[in-house]
Amino acid sequence: MIESKLTKYNYIISTLLNKYHLKYNYDEFEQLLFIRMWELIQEYNPEQQMSLKSFLFTRLNFYLIDLFRSIKIYEPVDFNTISLESQTLSTSLEQLACYNHFLTTLSPKEQYWLKLKLSGYKQKELAKFLNCSISTLKNYQKNIKIKYLSYYTK
Questions:
Q1: Region of residue 21 (left: phi > 0; alpha: psi -120 to 50; beta: else)
Q2: Domain count within the chain
Q3: Which of 10, 39, 74 is a domain's end point?
């Protein structure tokens, strides 16, 4: 009986995996979801208002999200930058001076746009702060790009 339900609702697993566009560890996630589906079918109470299909889809979706959250992502470490801290510091001071000089080539609105954009603000927020339209913001971006390329490719 459980086996027939497993084969009947097995498509839910591939639907969920495709929903999140998994390109790595597909088989591992598929196995974990299959095991969890087996457990959920045993736990399912038919007297609940939710159908088995909805129950499985919802619970497996949340289980998959929990699996994603539990994955630890390790950033690669560049050992060259660690061993050359003093050289990096002087380079970053030179870069900061060069960046500050580049800012003087921009208009005050372009400078404000660039600082906000580098701080991570979205287009709508930038338009609100600068009191202008999104097309004006795109013009600022285009002008800054042109000035940037001409400044750093001299």
A1: left
A2: 2
A3: 74
Check: CB of residue 6 under 8 Å from CB of residue 37: yes
The number of C-alpha atoms within 13 Å of 25 and in the hemisphere containing its C-beta is 9
**pTM listed for this prediction:** 0.47
Q: What is the DSSP letter of 76?
A: P
**Is there a contact between 130 and 137 (Cβ–Cβ < 8 Å)?**
yes
Q: Which residues of the chain have pLDDT under 50?
A: 77, 79, 82-85, 87
| CATH number of domain containing 106 | 1.10.10
Q: How distant is the alpha carbon of residue 107 from its chain centre?
A: 32
Count CA atoms within 13 Å of residue 30 on its CB side.
Answer: 13
- For 114, the domain range is 81-153
**pLDDT one-digit tens code per residue, 125-151:** 888 888 888 888 899 999 999 998 888
Q: Give the relative orientation of helices 134-152 and 85-103 as an angle to the nearest 10 degrees.
A: 120
> Which DSSP string corresponds to 128-151?
HHHTS-HHHHHHHHHHHHHHHHHH
